[in-house]
């Protein structure tokens, strides 16, 4: 059969459109089959967790809400209403941490603190930023965000900082403000 080229194109387009619209409902059903609900394995209200090492308290975490997603391939714990943490060093010196939201990733040991993050040492040093990460294994804080650091030497502002949990080692990047140095 020798149809004009115009009719051949119309017939081919009709077949493609029919196949496309005919498969649409099946595609949506396949999507539903592959969808798994993202629900926590457990949740808790008014949490007060004490972390210990050899009978010594190393930290206390208080939060109004905790969602545990340990049932996922990449397990994490979410604190959607914020956290208030107190860390203790070996001499029982305390570091206080507050944030509006936090996520703790089990496999990496990283805690992501977000929203009005404030860290205060017992010595009076205060760091404020909008996002801060804490590496639990190395006991190290870091951020690439803007920050404000207040201590006995004055107030400094910058963007990008990392420091030990006791504020003894501080590495800052772009910094401005009043800074006193012994060098």
From TrEMBL:
Transmembrane segment boundaries: none
Domain of life from the UniProt record: Bacteria
Pfam family membership, one: LptC
Database matches in InterPro entries: LipoPS_assembly_LptC-rel, LptC
UniProt-recorded name of the protein: LPS export ABC transporter periplasmic protein LptC
UniProt organism field: Flavobacterium endoglycinae
């Amino acid at each position: 059969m020798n149809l004009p080229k115009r009719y051949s194109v119309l017939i081919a387009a009709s077949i493609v459109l029919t196949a496309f619209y005919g498969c649409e409902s099946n595609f949506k059903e396949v999507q539903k089959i592959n969808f798994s609900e993202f629900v926590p394995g457990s949740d808790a209200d008014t949490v007060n967790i004490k972390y210990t090492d050899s009978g010594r308290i190393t930290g206390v975490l208080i939060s109004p809400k905790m969602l545990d997603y340990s049932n996922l391939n990449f397990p994490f714990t979410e604190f959607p209403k914020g956290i208030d943490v107190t860390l203790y060093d070996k001499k029982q010196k305390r570091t206080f941490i507050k944030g509006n939201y936090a996520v703790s990733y089990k496999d990496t040991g990283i805690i992501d603190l977000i929203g009005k993050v404030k860290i205060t040492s017992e010595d009076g040093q205060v760091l404020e930023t909008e996002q801060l990460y804490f590496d639990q294994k190395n006991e190290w804080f870091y951020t690439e965000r803007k920050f404000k650091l207040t201590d006995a030497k004055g107030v400094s502002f910058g963007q990008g900082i990392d420091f030990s949990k006791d504020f003894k080692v501080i590495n800052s990047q772009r910094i401005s403000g009043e800074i006193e140095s012994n060098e």
